[in-house]
Amino acid sequence: MKKATAWSLALIPWIGLWLAVAPAWGATAPALSEVRVFKVQSAGCTETIPERAQGTQMCTHRGPTQVSVMEVGLGNNPMGRFNGAELNGQRTPICQVGNVSQVCNGAGTVMGYIYVFDLDVQAQGWFEYTNSSINGPQNTLKALLNIR
Known about the structure:
Elements: H1 6-21, E1 34-42, E2 45-48, E3 63-72, E4 79-82, E5 85-87, E6 89-97, E7 100-103, E8 109-121, E9 125-132, E10 140-147
Antiparallel strand pairs: 1-2, 1-3, 3-8, 4-5, 4-9, 6-7, 6-8, 9-10
């Protein structure tokens, strides 16, 4: 029987640590399949944005404004911009629980995210959101909306 060397024994805690933080390699993450702006909210108005809309229609948004984006599937490079300036956003994971999509609370499988971007609208401009799929086919999707 061979004796274990000190350096080989030293690897055991590191391997255990690596296994403890390694992701569960179960189902493949869903590819990014849709991104779209679904709501624009400012002090004077909240507007639900229909699919394939090119701009806001009901209000003139000015001042502090929130833009909400729905993302179906998982991406790895989310970017929100208003008139070319990068925006910070917050994301909330959405899980599939049975036949229902809901905010993740420990149950279900993550199937996408809701992003909310805060911006200060001083004049009409373009909001753009892009993200690239986390896995094949690594497509990049974009949503554009003219905020007036």
